[in-house]
Amino acid sequence: MLRFIFSRLLTFLPTFFGVTLIAFAFIRVLPGDPIIVMAGERGVTPERYQELITQFGFDRPVIVQYWDYLKGVLHGDLGHSFVTKKPVWDEFFTLFPATLELSLCAIVFATLLGLPAGVIAAVNRGKFFDRTLMSSALIGYSMPIFWWALLLIIVFSGWLGWTPVSGRISLMYYFDNPTGFMLWDALWSGQKGALWSAIHHLILPTIVLGTIPLAVIARQTRSAMLEVLSEDYIRTARAKGLAPFRVNGVHALRNALIPVITVIGLSVGTLLAGAILTETIFSWPGIGKWMVDSIFRRDYPVVQGGLVLIAVMVMIVNLTVDMLYGFINPKIRKR
Amino acid sequence: MNLRYQLATGLVLAALAAGSAGAKTLVYCSEGSPEGFDPALYTAGTTFDASSHPVYNRLVEFVTGTTEVVPGLAESWETSEDGLEYTFHLRKGVKFHASDKFTPTRDMNADDVIFSFERQWKEDNPYNKVSGGTWEYFNGMSMQDLLKSIDKVDDYTVKFVLNRPEAPMIANLAMDFASIQSKEYADAMLAAGTPEMLNQEPIGTGPWSFVAYQKDAVIRYKANPDYWEGKPAIDDLVFAITPDASVRYQKMKANECQIMPYPNPADIEAMKADPDINMLEQEGLNVGYLAYNTKQAPFDNPKVRKALNMAMDKQAIIDVVFQGSGKIAKNPIPPTMWSYNDAVVDDAYDPEAAKAMLAEEGVSDLSMKVWAMPVQRPYNPNARRMAELIQSDFAKVGVNVEIVSYEWGEYLDRSKAEDRDGAVLLGWTGDNGDPDNFLAVLLGCDGVGGSNRAQWCYQPFEDLIQKAKVTSDMAERTKLYEEAQVAFKEQAPWATIAHSVVFMPVRKEVTGYKVHPLGGHIFYGVDIAE
């Protein structure tokens, strides 16, 4: 197993350098000079422009800029945001826990509902249940997130008053947020009701962000289950008179899980990159909106650093998924 | 609204109030995050709302709701005969805020004023390079060329000496970048090796002191009990950062916040009908325009420009592009600005007359480009749509329009070129409420090849605005600017299109809020019914 992990880690290196290069090149390829974008309608004089070019280091050859940036990355220094003047590293780790917390809730929600839905649909193939579940999944998959989020807010926050409109916790609670994970910090804040308020605020964003992964997981589980259910050993199990629950739940599902885990892993990766729309609508202080704002402002250090850190997070998730395969299917780790 | 939620919100507010007996809390659903808290480092209104308005003061201040300048941290000032020296007499007994990192040992004095400007001005000031300081406004208002020296006459008297007379100087000093910082705090932070604290945990003399900022989520302030103008009525001021306009509206309805900026145009009618909401409105201090390139034929002919202006159906633009949240512009400065010349008559929409005028000037089969900005701005919420309307209007007088657009940075850059092909849609939002900030920046000869997108240098107009710049008598300046607007209208370097209307929904419980023409959201003077 150790050798397996080590070999996976080795593949990290070229990917990591590739990402730094792409991140560096990406923002520079975009049209639009950061200084001119920053100055807006007001503009800058040519002398001032030159001063700023020197201050930001854009007057050096690109290769030197890349080398300095790479040295910084390897030393854990991702530079300072042009806009907020704060270290990119600090900004990322202030915001990332919010994204991570929401992503994990969304994926747990999607898995808890999607997996049983897929199994039930497969077992009842072609019946009413299957058709209803699969068409709901299709609707969920094609739903415009923006519209869906506003609809939920209007119904559940506006009309019914069951959930708050946006934010991570009610403004009445005020405590330090040392880990950045609101559920955890609320639990340890000692303030009565804080945890409940944080959970309350998570409900709608979790549903909105979990909708697409839920649909994907349900459909993937169904098709994987259908394939396994037609295998000979399942027929044998049934012939032996095993209870349907054991046949479907243990023998079939375990083997159907590999492609489903792939899908879950990929979804987590996508969610970690920041759910821009969900974060914007629910005023969720995560990295999605932070990255988009930085691209618009041509805030080079943030875009470069943010992309690299997100890529590393996604690589970690992929590694975890690879290891999970190994646990579920020993054949894979021996390859 | 749902009773249960009203009850819950009531409980929240009650609990917020529980911190101190009878404390009042106002929650403002702000549209974005501040870039930092040192207003001199930035240019965005969102940043000023969170920093310079609640936390800081300036030597002189704008009266909220007007562009009038009144004493602030300076009780009074005198200007020398030649307009080169401004002597400010500082208010005594003004306290800076205290925090867990800093307790002031003295009142605000001349050292603080000098430090606040020198850090932006002099490269040898230890704060000049802190937080990557680029001091965009200080430089943008040409303060480095304007200032000769800032001298301490005594602890409570400061003299600004200028290199040339500049009438808008006082208005400049009321701008956000001119906020007064505590030199004592700056020195303490420098000694502690954390000079960036000035930008992260601001200390000022303003009505509220900064408490905490959770990035992209919440900013908290508490009332300054020693505030020199009197303690504000709101004890706890909270900014709930809510980027989406529809969500801000839902939060207002649920009483999760009591004031919000920038509503969706589509929501305005519903808000006006909502019994819980007062809708305040005022023209913004901005102008959206179409600038012809007056250096290129046939647009070098004022009659051709005039004819095109007459071909433009501005009312249709207001209805379609602004959805009612705009007003037709006839002058290059907005009506809320002093010296606005209401006697100027706009070019009437008359395609037939326009056609005849073009024929008279020998212009036929004209093809031109209209540049449409790729971004939304208050003075132009949808430039593409506006360009399409102009295209169809101009087609009616036989002018064929091709719409072009570039990425925003490219757009700003390329549109400056003196040999630019085509007319450019752009606009401007005022900085200091002074007409010079519109007329000289956008239409002065110095701006050709830069911010003067019409590339228009017209000597009679230039003489008027240059004279106004060095005249300190307000009545005289007003007259000069009024004349300049007449000259502008005759020459028509732009088609003046619209001024946006700023809508500000405020919950019924809130009193005393005024829409500020300079765009800031200011809560001093605001109260909330319990």
UniProtKB/TrEMBL annotation, chain A:
Per the record, the coiled-coil ranges are none
What keywords are assigned to this protein?
A: Cell membrane, Membrane, Transmembrane, Transmembrane helix, Transport
Task: Check the record and name the Pfam families matching this protein.
Answer: BPD_transp_1, BPD_transp_1_N
Query: What membrane topology was assigned to this protein in its record?
Result: Multi-pass membrane protein
Record-annotated ABC transmembrane type-1 domain positions: 96-325
Q: Where are the transmembrane segments?
A: 12-30, 100-124, 145-162, 194-217, 256-282, 302-328
Location in the cell? Cell membrane
Q: Which InterPro entries match?
A: BPD_transp_1_N, MetI-like, MetI-like_sf
Gene Ontology MF terms: dipeptide transmembrane transporter activity
Output the Gene Ontology cellular-component terms. Answer: plasma membrane
Family under the similarity heading: Belongs to the binding-protein-dependent transport system permease family.
Q: What is this protein called?
A: Dipeptide transport system permease protein
Q: Which organism encodes this protein?
A: Albidovulum denitrificans
From TrEMBL, chain B:
Listed GO CC annotations: ATP-binding cassette (ABC) transporter complex; outer membrane-bounded periplasmic space
Can you say where in the cell this protein is located?
A: Periplasm
MF term (GO), any? peptide transmembrane transporter activity
- The answer on whether this UniProt entry bears the keyword Transferase reads no
Q: Kindly indicate whether the keyword Acetylation belongs to this entry.
A: no
Q: Where is the Solute-binding protein family domain?
A: 68-448
- UniProt keyword terms in alphabetical order: Signal
The residues forming the signal peptide are: 1-23
Q: Name one GO biological process term.
A: dipeptide transport
Against InterPro entries, the record matches this protein to: Peptide/Ni-bd, SBP_5, SBP_5_CS, SBP_5_dom
Q: Which family does it belong to?
A: Belongs to the bacterial solute-binding protein 5 family.
Protein name in the entry: Dipeptide transport system substrate-binding protein
